[in-house]
Amino acid sequence: MPVVTEPRVHVHDVELAGLERDVLVLTAEERRWGRRRVTTRAGRALALALPTGSVLVPGDVLYVGPGWYVAVEAAAEPVLAVTPRSREEAVRVAFEVGNRHFTLALDGEQLLVPDDPAMDQLLTRLGVDFERRAAVFVPVGPGHGHDH
Question: Which of 20, 25, 36, 102 could form a disulfide with 68 if both were Cys (CB 3.0 to 4.6 A apart)?
């Protein structure tokens, strides 16, 4: 089983030409877990032994094997999507979410937060419009990892 010790392989697209592309589909939280065994979409097993604090980035190449490579892909996951009515409301939501050590992502004009009871209560208390949906969640900044 290949052991991955770095969060990104530095390769050019031309070096990947002709190789089979496999993916490791992970949620935002899973992209922060640096030490574990994982299975790619094609069923290949990898062992992650990444440096402490590593965060996998969607689109990055994680491993190159003989005739194939593995790229990181973000999984769609349950989120609460906020459509702020103003810049001030967006800043207030971002502040309150961060103040509770949750991560926040941007999706066009919407702010995304994890679909969590604490975030549901917060957004309801703030009186902002939000909807539940599945979306790729790529947090802004490193976050604190206290989402649950």
Answer: 20
